[in-house]
Amino acid sequence: MKPTDPGEFIASLNAGVLANQMGMALSHVAAGVVEHGKKGKVTLTLELSQIGDSHQVKVAHKLDFTEPTKRGSKREDTATETPFFVTANGLQLFADNPSGQLFTKQDAPVVARD
């Protein structure tokens, strides 16, 4: 199995929304750190679980950040889930051949017409 491309993986989470949220969190926390001279924190947590008996996994992702302020800090978190296929090319949002998995010849035999 090839390794999953981390940039493509992050960009696929929640249809790209998580990547935008992460960018905003990093910018806000960094600005707070510089402005107030205190530490900030950005955490991305990923939990993977199998979906049924398939070759798919559910990736639960949580973005949590703490932005320092003048008299304390401001905290926000968001959590969502994204399904992925486990393929020979790593985790992918879409299967290489999704319609190829629908039916086998035993499930839907085609009888030739005379």
Structure description:
The chain has 114 residues and is of the alpha+beta class. 24% of the residues lie in helices and 38% in strands. The chain has one domain. It contains 2 helices and 4 strands; from the N terminus they run ααββββ. A 4-stranded antiparallel β-sheet has the order 1-2-3-4, with helices on one face. The longest helix is centred in the first third of the chain and has 20 residues, at 17-36. The chain starts with 5 loop residues before the first helix and ends in a 22-residue tail after the last strand.
Produce the secondary structure layout.
Elements: H1 6-12, H2 17-36, E1 41-50, E2 56-69, E3 72-87, E4 90-92
Antiparallel strand pairs: 1-2, 2-3, 3-4
Outline of the structure:
With 114 residues, this protein is α+β, with helices and mostly antiparallel strands.
Properties at a glance:
four-stranded antiparallel sheet, rod-shaped, 24% helix, single chain, 114 residues, alpha+beta
Largest sheet: 4 strands, antiparallel
Low-confidence stretches: none
**Strand order, biggest sheet?**
1-2-3-4
**Rg on CA atoms, Å:** 21 Å
Coarse structural class: alpha+beta
N-to-C series of helices and strands: HHEEEE
